[in-house]
Give the backbone structure.
Amino acid sequence: MLTALDCRRLGSLVFATLLILSTATTYAKDRILLIDGFHQGELFCRAFRVTKPTSIDIHAVGALSAFNRDQMAAYSWIIRSGSLSPVWEMTIDNTDRYKRDKYLREYQSTQELEPGDYEVYFYAGSPSTISGFSFDLSGLGKALEKLKINLSDLSDQKDELEKQKAKLEDQKKELEKQKAKLKEQKGKTDSSDPSNRIVINGDVFDLSDSDVSDEIIKEYSLEITSDAKDISRIECAYNSDRVIAEILQPENNLYASKGFSLAQPMQVEITALGENAGMADDFADYGWIVNADTRKRVWSMTEATTDPAGGAEKNKLVTERLDLPKGNYLLYYVTDDSHTYDDWNAAPPYNPQAYGIRVNALRKDDLKYVKPYQDTYSQAALIAIVRADNDFFETIPFHVAKDCDVRVYAIGEYGESSDAFADYGWIERVGDEDLYWEMTERNTHHAGGASKNRDFDDIVHLTAGNYVLGYVTDDSHAYGDWNSGPPYDQKNYGISIFATSKSFDPTIIKQLPKETASANVLAKITYVGDDADESQVFVLDKPTRVHVVCLGEGSGSDMADYGWIENAADDDIVWEMTYRRSKWAGGADKNRLVDTYVMLDAGKYRARFVSDDSHSFGNWNSDPPNNPQRWGITITKGE
């Protein structure tokens, strides 16, 4: 007797008919399942158990991709439960044309199964969908050409190029991938409309036909029959009895962590599935492990160690073994805004249930040395500048009572064309000329989203003294107004200082008033932006040798951003920054520095600094100087 059961879906399947064979069935070639009525992008899963070698007959109708002759857009496959690879799948080679349609493909054959648990999947992708985007590609050729021209024209305008490149980043990547796909087909363009059609094996695919997807998808179906009498239904699942920690089946826009403690050194097994479109380590969905005590990243998904996970090319799989010392650890997993469990925008991996990350013990008995770990001590920041929006600048002075280690967590934007950060944080020690710590390309990791998003999460040692925590952004791509993919941890865009352990004494770090400065400072005009005209008065009660540091912009014999000292009584200039007196300050050639001593009589003086409408602190149009936070003029008492 056949029993009607509800269909459990991983997607949003609207209509399906599913019949599961009862163990009491007495007639041959009974239907194990039948499913049709798909909508685009839906995914179906059904699991079953066989207890002896079994033959099943599979009849499936799917479709090939219009962009890759070796890839199916809609197809079925079977895996062993818990496995990451298929025992059977529909391919171009094992299917035939169906109903004389250039897209539809049919599979009809017998598959032998050994005893075990199995999961059968069907993904209803559209032939005209590539990597999650359904295109009306009538303008693809023109768009590619326009993009190429724009980038070429902008090559001589570095600042504007960076801004436009950021806005076009995601689109460019996708268009370039599609262009490469089309070239691989070795097809030729239909002369009537080159951008609308491609030719594969003599078949003309009209990519501008917006109705083709719906008509094709109506034909998709999957039917499995067998004469076996002991096939039973089970649940689709990805289980293990050796789990140390896992973050599986993630939603979009996830930033999650899970802690675990090891009572002794242990070798663990990591299985991670994520999304990488082939841009080095620019993952969209990925995981990593951090030593919670040192904040060092001890493992991360990298493109070099990944293998194809099945389905779309961007699905990546990592399986590794890792030796971990005794200690506390944090497992992280992050996703962007698309292509995750239950919301696939392209063909999912072979085992969608495994999407995410899992850390397993090699032996079940090892779990007795594992405990959950809660990262409570670093939840509240000691000092923080976060949710930094466009054209943002803030500094916070603070005092460190004794030497200590702190966790610094900073997220910013790195301009790949300028090899410098556009949004970044730093720590400076009051009285020192050089930065104490700053974000660099080498000490940061990809922070998710656009490749320019970078983060630092590590331990920094602070010696006793006074410091300034700072953060600055330019005029685009910041909290609340991203011009390309945002970082995963949007709310913490900026810089924060955390404790490093539960035993950390938070009273040794104290925020100071904004006006806090070194006792030797007579005048300080720094962090100067565009179109500035700033001044500061100081008084000398006796003849004094003063130390002047002035950082500005100049080329040839002209200065664009520069400072001077004038007598407050009559406005006479007593010292001025000139190009001839300056030297290169690092970065662009026009960054100029004067570091000198000047003898001043007793009296009242005014420090001045002016800037033009470009290339200043927080808004560089070429490489910034080595110490950008000093852009301006600083006058201190000489030694």
